[in-house]
Amino acid sequence: MNLRNEKVSNQIKELAAQFLGRENNRTSLITVTSTNTSPDLKHATIFITVLPTLKEHRALEFAKRKRVDLREFLKKNMPIKTIPFIDI
To answer: What's the half-sphere exposure (Cβ side, CA atoms, 13 Å) at 1?
Structure first.
């Protein structure tokens, strides 16, 4: 991974953690553990962990539903031209 991809990945990771922490309904703890971006920066995959593990499925559904809102949040807070499509 080159330096630019690494910087974009780290920024997506931080902003996604901020967004999910703010939007979460507080019944579970969602932690963003890492982010992978494609070499052309058009796709990004966000990896999360959930505590308690019994609520993992529900939290994953919540995060996937919020992908469009997350992408809008990234558009407002990232100084890059093309915002990647997000998968969780």
So the answer is: 13
Three-state secondary-structure class, residue 83: coil
Per-residue HEC secondary structure of 59-77 comes to HHHHHHHCHHHHHHHHHHH
**Mutual orientation of helices 3-23 and 67-77 as an angle, nearest 10°?**
120
The pLDDT tens digits for 36-52 are 999 999 999 999 999 99
The label of the residue with tokens 């949040």 reads: 73
φ, ψ of residue 27 in degrees (nearest 5): -90, -15
Report the amino acid identity of residue 22: R
How far, rounded to the nearest angstrom, does the alpha carbon of residue 42 sit from its chain's CA centroid?
14
| 3-state helix vs strand vs coil in the chain, percent to 5 | 50, 25, 25
C-beta separation of 46 from 12 below 8 A: yes
User: Which pTM was predicted?
Assistant: 0.91
